[in-house]
Write a structure and sequence with these properties.
77% of the residues lie in helices and 0% in strands.
Length: 119
């Protein structure tokens, strides 16, 4: 995401995306706490779906010939990524409910709400 942010011309969009990166870092910290609560290793698997969406965004940005189209195309690409993340957090929340009470359900629910606010 930081590489994509560098291409933005709108200060407002840049601020929103930077805020989203900060929220993502917070979410990772929360999930690490949840994993510790569950005595689960913190090893991260590669998320090929998210990587594919980011690669798609980069591909679209490379094809743009008019600077005025960069922000709208980037915004559309980020929305795709956010929708994927919201779906993943929702799935995590359901999994957390199945596992029983705890921080997982609360963390995923809060992250999903923050993601929805960026739409």
């Amino acid at each position: 995401m930081p590489r994509l942010i560098k291409k933005v011309s709108s200060d407002r969009l840049r601020e929103m995306l930077e805020k989203r990166v900060e929220q993502g870092s917070t979410h990772i910290e929360q999930m690490e706490d949840v994993l510790a609560e569950m005595d689960t290793p913190k090893a991260r698997q590669k998320n090929i779906a998210a990587e594919g969406l980011i690669e798609d965004a980069n591909h679209h940005l490379e094809e743009i010939r008019e600077d005025s189209l960069v922000d709208p195309v980037l915004l559309a690409s980020v929305q795709k990524i956010e929708h994927y993340c919201i779906a993943a957090w929702g799935t995590g929340r359901v999994d957390g409910k199945a596992a029983g009470p705890g921080q997982s359900r609360e963390s995923n629910g809060a992250c999903a709400q923050r993601g929805k606010a960026l739409r």
